[in-house]
Amino acid sequence: MGTEQPARMRFAPSPTGRFHIGGARTALYTYLFARKTGGQFILRIEDTDQKRFDPAAEAELFESLHWLGLQWDEGPDIGGPSGPYRQSERMDIYQQYAQQLVDGGHAYYCFCTQDQLAEVRKLQQQHKEPPRYDGRCRRLAPGEAATRVASGEPHVIRFKTPKDGTTTAVDLLRGPIEVENATIDDYILVKSSGMPVYHLAAMVDDHLMGITHVTRGSEWLPTFPLHVMIYEAFGWDQPVWVHLSVLLNPSGKGKLSKRDSGSSTGGAHAIFTLDLRELGYIHEAVTNWVSLMGWSFDDHTEFFSMPDLIQAFSLEKLNPSPAAVNYSKLDHFNGLHIRSLVPSELTRRLVPFFANAGLDVTLEALEPITPLIQERIRTLDEAVDMAGFFFRHFTTPPVEQLTGKGMSPADSAEAARRAAVILREHPGLEHEELENALRALADELGLKAGQLFGILRDAVTGQSISPPLIETMEILGLQTVLERVEDAAEALESA
Length: 495
Known about the structure:
Elements: E1 8-11, H1 21-36, E2 40-43, H2 55-68, H3 91-103, E3 107-110, H4 114-126, H5 142-150, E4 156-159, E5 166-171, E6 175-180, E7 188-190, H6 198-208, E8 213-217, H7 224-234, E9 240-244, E10 247-248, H8 273-278, H9 283-291, H10 306-312, E11 323-324, H11 327-340, H12 343-356, H13 363-366, H14 370-373, H15 382-387, H16 399-402, H17 409-425, H18 431-445, H19 449-461, H20 469-476, H21 478-493
Parallel strand pairs: 1-2, 8-9, 10-11
Antiparallel strand pairs: 3-4, 4-7, 5-6
């Protein structure tokens, strides 16, 4: 399989719950290959299960894909030449193709009731046989079945699986998968409500939409041979089938589950895409992180922008082996991508996090601060902890916090007083000169530079971890810095 031909790829989720990183990975791989080949990325909503369909889940799906930067070429919101792109709006199409299978002898009407099916399953369990349909309606004469349908008798449509021979389904990553036809059930294609199931609807849609490559989860491998049979029954050319690896939880000892995720306050183990956004992860890092869960370019390159991914990606380099989700890698990538942003863009993304913390922050006020913290934060929300003091009402810290490491309050007070003198001697707060003068003061007082700078950091910022001290002083201004240092000295002297 080459990549010279433009691929038509589809991401076809069922919006029944929150959008998570497993779905994001499938969408990303689909998008990357479509863009790599100069093809089309199509969004199709598989909403035939109306009982489980959730409009809120669909809204979150759209928002998540947009945030990740995955813009589709055709879809339910923008239309396209192969619409409708919502399966609930394609019911007449499915009925037509289901009837075609019946007329061609590849499917049949089944009138068995739930009670009859339950009795069959009970007998099979007693005989320790795998549960499956016993085929009683398969043996009905077509004329009799048509008459019963015409009379309005409830029925489903089942696929008439061949009972002899084998079927070979070819997965790009796993190669040929050969199964005995006798082991495959006569699956339902159309429910008694007239609603098609995935096995029919997705196959029909992929054919009519000209899908060349199907990327989907490995949970479809058990029914993969059925889907090949359906294509063969219609006489259609199959797409290239790609079943992605299973995602494992961080321990590597079980499939990643929505039940394992925290809420938006659940820390780094949140698996829902928009929760990651709320936790301060940026979309460039999330796509970089997700891309490497089952794909690699080589054995050492890990940092990718979206254009990098499009250029480097290939389906052949996907790995079918299970991939564990590594949240420390997400932190790592997030830090790298934060540092790769131009400061003005980082500032724009930081403002909402300060606002969510109740701080009134403008772009203009934050711009000079951003370069001080850009190298030090791993997530956007960490910026509030590190630099929120610039925008909060300041209160002199308690004496215990102001006291230098291994020092008494009195010695700490003297250090603060002497530092204030030096600050007055350097009203421009020139970085190199001021730092040298403070280091010389530390030597004179018999202190380590870290002891003196620690006292000043707590006095000026109210916290032990902050942006670089002298740059912070420059932003606060000499008058504010002097007031805080002298207030700290006074508090220490009063201890």
